[in-house]
Known about the structure:
Blueprint lengths: L1 H44 L9 H10 L4 E5 L5 E4 L13 H9 L1 E7 L6 E9 L5 E8 L3 H47 L14 H34 L3 E7 L2 E5 L1 H6 L9 H5 L1 H9 L3 E7 L2 E8 L4 E7 L1 H36 L5 H30 L8 E4 H9 L3 H6 L3 E6 L4 E4 L1 H17 L6 E7 L5 E6 L6 H6 L21 H12 L2 E7 L3 E7 L7
Parallel strand pairs: 12-14
Antiparallel strand pairs: 1-2, 1-5, 3-4, 4-5, 6-7, 6-10, 8-9, 9-10, 11-13, 14-15, 15-17, 16-17
Amino acid sequence: MRKRILIALLSITVAGILLLALLFTDVFYQNNVDAAERQLQIYMNFFDASAPFTQEEAESFSQKTDGARVTLMEADGTVVADSYAPVQGETREDREEVREAIENGEGYSVRESGTVGENMIYYCVRIDGQGGALVRIGMRLDTGVSFFVDALPTVIWFLVLDILCCLVFAWLATSAILKPVENLTKELASSASGSEIRTKYSELKPIAKMMNDMSADIGDKVARIKEDNRIEKLVLDSMEHGIAIFRSPSDVILINKTAARLLSYEENEPIPLFTEDAEISDLLSAGESASVYRTFGEKDYNFRFTMGDPNVLLITDVTESMAAARSKNEFIANVTHEMNTPLTSIKGFAELIAAGAVPPERIQGMAKTIIKQSDRLANLIRSIINFSAIDSDELPDYEVDISELIAELIGGFEPKLRKKNIALRLNVEQGVKVMSRRERLVEILNNLITNGIRYNKEGGTLEISLSGGDRPRLTVQDTGIGLSEEDKTRIFDRFYTVDKSHNGSGGGFGLGLAIVKKLCRRAGWELKVESTLGEGTAFTVVFCPKNEN
């Protein structure tokens, strides 16, 4: 507003000064013309009417009149002599001053001379004593433009002085005018903190009241919006799912922490994945709702795009569901494979016996094979049942003496130990008890000891250690084939065996360690494995402290 007032004042002042300059220029010009006319009349009084009309007379009279142009003409306007130019014989009857002198006895004219090429004022008189001959006197006359140009420096000084005065006046005037408004603005700014706008000017009081009402209403709305945004952000950021609402990769309306982390999003920057991932970029360009799956680190995510205005992206962690689906498929495939081997053997031998194609002396051997494969199938089914039953085990725990349990179980493994000539070393602390159940610990011990014998070397060593303390530790260590780095990551997977065999030649199904892992995890115990390929493996179960169940 101050700027507009200043510009208006300056414009008015400059226009006024220019108009005054033009007006004064015109006045000065007219005064100059009048003075020139009087001067020419004075000059004409010195002319000798009886003198001959010759070139010498014209030049002589010109010298007497300070170099004025003198033209002597006959009564019809034909030039006889001219002090400025040799134009004798030419006619000047078409000139305004000549025409007036012929008609009225004298005439004036201000114009640009075609002969001289300058602005001139002419005064022409008819000499009746010489048969109506004409005498014309002319002198140079500045134009109105030249007057204005001559006055321009003065005008510029006036303009500069006027601008300075206008600046000072405009500043003082606008300050006086705008001060109440500025005070009202400051009051409005301070009202954001809750204070009321006040003014001593009655003209501004209605505005102040209106602003107070608006400020109160806006304050309430802003407070509600902030609270809603806070709750919305709290809810969104606490969600496990990622949510993003956007119009384009660079126009993100809303995004929660989970989505920002997964999409590597930085505020006021485009979402990198939307432009770098070709499939997602094409999907966004097509504007079609769809779902895509992406893996970040060790987790799988479902990106579900709902296209509209705006677009919505829902990111869901599907790691567990996809792992469960893969595990289910693998489990079914492995169970089918493991059961198919003994069933095929049993069916084959039974069909041969039923067809009478087996000599009597071989029937007993085939029957033993059928019994062996049946036992193997029964063991597989029992292991699967035990594995599945772990999750539904809700019976209470009680105190079990592990040292006594080891002593009871170890005798059942002596035939297998002797068969592979494996030396057994027991380093068992007596009286070590944990909160569990007997059948759970039996399952763990049987699987760890069986594993230590099966994958041990001929003539190797199997050591069972048990120590007490706040957290009892059970370790079963063998000197067998050991584990590779890949084996260490998969040893507890269901149906995984170190020799990669599923045909039963190793005697195991790959469920033993999976059962041990599941039992330990459900009980809250820690299961560790340490192994060096070709040197042996040690499995350690670290039980919970005695005051924890």
